[in-house]
Amino acid sequence: MRAIVLGSAAGGGFPQWNCGCPSCVAVREGRAGLEKRTQDSIAFTSTEGRGELAPRFAIVNCSPDILSQIQATRALWPKAARHTPIGAIILTNGDLDHVLGLFSLRESQPLAIYATESVWRGIEASVFVRTLKRFEGQVVFRPLDLDRPVELANAAGEALGLRVRAFALPGKLPVHLMGHGEPSPEDNVGLAIGEPHRPTIAYAAACATADVDLAGDSALFFDGTFYREDELRRLGLSESLAKDMAHVPIDGPEGSLAKLASVTARKIYTHINNTNPILVPGSDERRTVEAAGWEVAFDGMEIEV
Length: 305
Ligand SMILES: [Zn+2]
Ligand SMILES: [Zn+2]
Prior knowledge:
Blueprint: E1 2-7, H1 22-28, E2 41-45, E3 57-60, H2 66-71, E4 86-90, H3 96-99, E5 111-115, H4 117-124, E6 139-143, E7 150-153, E8 159-168, E9 189-194, E10 200-204, E11 219-223, H5 231-234, H6 256-259, E12 266-270, H7 284-291, E13 294-296, E14 302-304
Parallel strand pairs: 3-4, 4-5, 5-6, 10-11, 11-12, 12-13
Antiparallel strand pairs: 1-2, 1-14, 2-3, 7-8, 8-9, 9-10
Bound molecules: zinc ion (ZN) (2 copies).
């Protein structure tokens, strides 16, 4: 299986349109070594031979940047007059940076969307969802039950040759739904995805704690939103702590660097907020995570397991 990181930034992207933090200023000005990043998304595909027009890709999360992400990724370009190699979209939660792109994928293209019932209910509450329901079968919703692996297929039922298992991750309801529903373990999930009976990749891009069992996968993409618990306060950007936003920081005794030290899989931070100093090559924080064996995802990064 092959994975292509479509977007490696947290909500807001890098640079963030209304942010004048030192890193956003530097990347906006094109300072050497800093790379622009779009919002969280990753594409998975089986490496087995498939027909030219076969559905090949499952996309995890559908960010507001999806159109430019597709444009930047040759493998996702149409292979016929009306065609997409994207067979399925999997949502890990209902945050806007993970779902807004759905409303850009109209153009009468049938879509298969995999999400937990709770995440799907949140999307159905939006009046915009009607733009995806203009004809019978435009959206085929397939529920993801926790810890029950499913074989992915496109809207027409053609298999992608990929299997995914969703597992609960401590998180929170999307900001726009807080106070409008009871929190559920299905609100925020991680995914283990792979070809059947082959190595898997775990994707846990939003997680409130690093006390999670992530053994058994060949590679792990993990929440790299914040380096420090009080990162936004230090920069004078917000009073919110990382935990207020349900993201475990990298640093500290409860941070992912310490807690996931024994995970032997290839480890990659993604969903990186524009304030996180690991975005700056040569920073102490970047050197610290690399010395601990972690990689830092970037848009266009490809890995194979
Ligand atoms: Zn996000
Ligand atoms: Zn910034």
